[in-house]
Design brief:
With 496 residues, the protein is of the alpha/beta class. Helices cover 36% and strands 20% of the residues. The chain binds adenosine-5'-diphosphate.
């Protein structure tokens, strides 16, 4: 099976979110399963500064974007782990910029940039010697790819027989642009209707992908259900519900080499299931030193590592600390960056409870690993969570997650109670309502459970042994590809 992956970011080239982890890891995992994979990415300015062996090829071709013609210059890169072929599409006008999408404001011409990229990726694929079976695109940036394949590139021998798969990583980002950007796409205006590319008067690239792709996936089964209703669908719930039969949830894998307490270069002492207590104690000593404490705290360490965004439930965490820090039952450690008001509130609360609450504002990979190793309990009280990775990292390090029952957290964390302890499925503490009292109740249950050393050890041992590797996820993707190939392509509706 020949698979073409088209994504706007992938590790190690460019990353702003979880999409980059998926697009970076899935090709190599698919290769191991015997799928020949080609990955196409934009050649952003930043990809050249990372010491990666990127080489320019002789291949250059023009790409129509509205009435203009933009030239695509093709680069290639071979990485040590066989992730298949990688191409990067260069165009100085589109990609020689400071950031991927513009920050804090999106670039005004993002529609043009990703129309160019989507078409260039297909034009490149069309110039390959062998046809592709599956064209797998990701998120709004490549949402037009299925429409291009069906409407404009259908007669190309290497593309015409392919089936298209779109993976949605987060419904909150849809790529909505004013209607005149329709002229840049090259599509006939007749597709600008409420059943295809239009959404409340605007061009909606994610919607186009949802309508035209042969198969849809998202990053967990529960999120796949949640986005078929409000508020999870962010307005596109009806379109998604209409395609329920073709929508599949596949939980992301994690990089089990980077997140492995047996080999992690970021932690002071390696450990596994058998010496987790020693490993965690040594990590706790290192963390205390890093934070300027004389000695490590012996109380349960309750941690949060992540973006300080409303989605992540940071308001609940602030409430939790205010409710619980005075009790002296636990030590809290927060690492994150994001909303300036939340950052300030966290600094204030840390100053109110010295020795009980530690807050580090910033993005710090080493500290994130050290916290996962040192902590007993990881907080993920998310409002919504398409998949979530931090809870899967926590498992590897023997850290027990406390999560809200939403999205991928439902699919990966099983609440601890008498029954799940008895049947061996317990893996964390789950609460339902997006309320601080519900979070507090779950954290208190976790802290109490931590007091029963033997049971806690059993829980820790079990979560450390779980398999959340990309191999497992890639097998699911391959199944989806096979199902998609076995079915006829989705018909293009003629909307009056
Ligand atoms: P999302 O992709 O929505 O931000 P995930 O749970 O899927 O959330 O992935 C977030 C991961 O990013 C965390 O597990 C953590 O490793 C990393 N991360 C987030 N914020 C920080 C930070 N301030 N410092 C270090 N790592 C961070």
């Amino acid at each position: 099976m020949r698979v073409l992956q088209i994504a706007s970011e992938a590790v190690p080239f460019a990353k702003t979110g979880g999409l980059a982890d998926v697009a970076g890891a899935l090709p190599a995992a698919l290769q191991q399963l015997g799928c020949q994979t080609t990955l196409v990415l934009p050649a952003y300015r930043s990809v050249f500064g990372k010491g990666l062996p990127i080489e320019q090829t002789d291949l250059r071709f023009p790409v129509a974007v509205g009435t203009r013609s933009l030239e695509a210059a093709v680069f290639t890169c071979r990485l040590p782990d066989d992730g298949g072929q990688i191409f990067l599409i260069g165009n100085d006008h589109c990609f020689d910029r400071d950031s991927l999408y513009g920050t804090p404001e999106d670039y005004a011409d993002n529609a043009e940039r990703f129309i160019f990229f989507s078409r260039a990726a297909l034009e490149l694929a069309a110039r390959q010697p062998e046809p592709f079976d599956i064209i797998h695109c990701h998120d709004w940036q490549t949402g037009l790819v299925p429409a291009y394949q069906k409407l404009l590139y259908n007669s190309w021998p290497t593309l015409g027989q392919a089936r298209t798969v779109l993976t949605i990583h987060n419904m909150a980002y849809q790529g909505q642009f004013w209607h005149w950007d329709m002229l840049l796409t090259g599509f006939h205006w007749k597709y600008f209707n409420w059943q295809q590319m239009e959404f409340y008067g605007q061009l909606n690239m994610l919607k186009a992908g949802i309508v035209f792709a042969d198969k849809l996936t998202t990053v967990s089964p529960t999120y796949a259900r949640e986005i078929q209703a409000a508020p999870g669908g962010n307005g596109l719930e009806g379109v998604l519900a209409g395609r329920a039969a073709d929508l599949v949830g596949i939980v992301n894998g994690i990089d089990t080499a980077a997140w492995n307490p047996r080999t992690d270069a970021h932690i002071p002492r390696h450990y596994g299931e058998d010496d987790v207590d020693d490993g965690k104690y040594t990590a706790r000593v290192a963390l205390a030193a890093r934070l300027g404490h004389a000695a490590p705290d012996t109380r349960p360490l309750v941690a949060f590592v992540g973006r300080l965004a409303e989605q992540k439930g940071v308001g609940l965490i602030l409430d939790l600390i205010n409710r619980m820090a005075g009790s002296g039952l636990a030590h809290f450690m927060i690492l994150g960056t994001g909303d300036p008001a939340v950052e300030q509130a966290l600094r204030t609360v840390a100053a109110s409870y010295p020795g009980t609450v530690d807050v580090v504002i910033g993005f710090d990979e080493t500290l994130a690993h050290l916290i996962q190793a040192a902590a007993d309990i990881l907080l993920m009280p998310s409002q919504y969570e398409p998949c979530g990775l931090a809870q899967l990292y926590a498992f590897r390090y023997g850290t027990i997650p406390v999560v809200r029952a939403t999205g991928g957290l439902v699919d990966t964390v099983i609440d601890t109670n008498d029954q799940t302890l008895a049947d061996g499925t317990a893996s964390g503490f789950v609460f339902e309502a997006f309320e601080s009292a519900a979070l507090e109740e779950a954290v208190r249950r976790a802290v109490a459970a931590r007091g029963d050393h033997d049971r806690w050890r059993e829980l820790v041992r079990r979560v450390m042994g779980q398999d959340w590797s990309w191999q497992a996820s890639a097998r699911r993707y391959r199944e989806v590809y096979e199902q998609t190939l076995a079915a006829p392509p989705v018909a293009v509706a003629d909307v009056e």
